[in-house]
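yo

u said u wanted the structure for the complex thing, so here. seqs first:
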Amino acid sequence: MAYYYKQLNAPLWSWVEQGNTLKATLSETNSNTVDGINFTASLYDVYNGGGTMSYTEAPSYFSKIFDEIQPFFILPHAELKRMYAAWESSLDSSLSQEYVDLIKDASYLVLKVNDSMYLHSFIEFSASITDSTAYPYQILYSVRNRWFLSSTNDKTNPDIILEISPEMIVSSFLQGTYFYDKNGKESWDYKFCLYQYPGGTRGLVIVDHCVPPSTGYNVRRYYQCVMAGRWMDIPSVMKQLGSPLAEFDPTFGDESDEGGYGGGSFDDSSDTIGIPTTPSIGISTSGMVNVYKINENDLIGFGSALFPDFVPVEPPTEVGIGETLASICENVISGLNLFTNSQLIQYIIDCHIMPISPPTATKTPIKVGFKVFENNEGNPVMSDYVTYDCGSVSLPEYYQNFLDYTGTQIELFLPFVGFVPIQNEWIQGGSINVQYRFNIIDGSFMAYVIANSSKSRLQDTVVGQYSGNCCVHIPITGQTYSSLMSGLVGGALGGIMPTSANMPTLKASADILGSAVGNATGFGNVQTSGNVQSSNGYSSSSSFLGVRTPYLKITRTVASFPSNYGHENGFPLNVTKTLSNVSGYTQCSRAVLDDITAPDSVKEQIATLLASGIYV
Amino acid sequence: MADIILYKNSSDRRCLNKKLSDPITLDNIKLNTEMSTETFEFDINTQADPFDVDVYNYCYSSWQPGYYYVTFTRVSYRVVHAVATIDPLMTYASSIKKIVATIDRNENEKNGYLLDSQYSAYAYKQVTTKTFPRGMTDDSIILMTIG
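structre next:
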């Protein structure tokens, strides 16, 4: 891939000096042949019905456009429906119902292409597929978690619909079409379509048919747009795309837009902020502290070995002095063992339950202080830190309009943390990934929320991180238990989001508990153990009883759009146009009526009517 | 004196181009008031021009070319009084079509991501959940000692 990319350093267009500006001349004849591949660059004046045109713009203008071509290819459901409507009249009745259903049910297709994808040519998308019979191409659809490839020109063949697996097309090429508004970023949607050239083999295809048909343009929609196509390396595309998305059937709205007045930098680039690497130094590898993963039986055995039953040996009554001394010695040795073990307690730092299993080495005898319990084994933990990936959830836009952003609230439930808010821009039309990084030593963790969204330009970026503690302590001594309780109370007061309303209650509870356990350290001395780290006020212990899988809670406004809504109210557009280029219900509140020769009173009437809505 | 063409208009008043039918030309109509661009009045002698005026609601005036809404009031058995009020949309349709303006709303083109304050919503909201593929259920016991 890098090889072909390098070849494109050869110029695809030429610049002609014209006064203070440069005139970019791009035409279909402006081709460049590299290794037998004919790369073609053309810029068409779609408004005038095709043909080559020259734009007089500063070179930076064009370079900006190409810099801003984002490697995203989106074919929204509504766009497919519009395509179908455009095609319907030109297709004969032999169009298979299967194909009709495919178009109607197809969801949008999102493809991410990596930076090594290279600009190939400019290409126009024809609204009439009957014009493209000479150029057989196929379109890739993602429909309800399945892939389909259709040959749109072969309408007489009912088996043109092929359900395919990604593996079937890994050796194929697709070409994407990119539409870009020439006038900066004023209300223009991205429309992409993917074409596969049957039989196309990388390095051998001569693309010489990127010529727009002379008819069938929807000049209103494609007015002054720059179209660019890219060859895409399908394996890379499929790899980055992952599984096709399940999609809802959008009922309203379909277009994307960018804001601005045209003078900004429009730097849409976004750096990837991934989760950090784990610290290189840990307690478990310090050599001073032994960290074992043990099972329940190991714990029971270790407990029995640590706290054996003390049964005094009764002194014999009918034996000599020797037996008596032996009995006394046995009692003394047993007592010394118990005393030794009781002193070992101070060498046991903690015993707790974690919700994940850390990587471990093979079992070894448990060592406590100076004593090795040969008959009690545990698996030494290899690292203090464990990263757990809960996976990703995709969230296609439900409405594909403003309601996905202003009428939708999304909350993310993070186990051991609670509900946290999620901004729509982080996930709508993209995906969100949750990863936990646990500290096995003290049970603390950091939950990372990683977003991918084409709308917000986020790419594998950590947009939220939430700390907490998830371990449940197993009391080894009475002191451990009191620490646990004091930690519980102190943690509750130090939780992430305790509200002022519940503070007095928590304080009162703390007093009661603190008094009851008689903890000398006081509840203000928060122990590592039992620390409550939860935005919803859960303790780590109670969180163990809660849901342990992250999930999204999506609250959507249920919109009611009557079928005649557009005809009676119109849809928001906010685009400057000549009124002859629009049709149907039209509203423009700020029209300038300079060129109408009429009395002012009539002009006012016209202005009022335009503002309230007319039918053009 | 002016020539008036009466029409049946079946279009909404907000239409730029009206659907007009059944034209009847009335020649040499004498205007009651001095004709203005916005409104004028005239009388029709229905005995001289026998037709049912009540089905007509629109007219074109050649005196000052333009389209007008018209309403009739029967003054006598023979005379119907007509009041014509300008239809600025149809009269200046060609000029209006040349206007370059920012289209706030349109029936056929839209930007769905712009806020639409006119939509209606149900009183209730839809609440759905989507769970992540993996949860944390692989519990383990950790024992830490010094030594």
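Chain B touches chain A through 63 residues (CB under 8 Å). The radius of gyration of chain B is 33 Å.
cya
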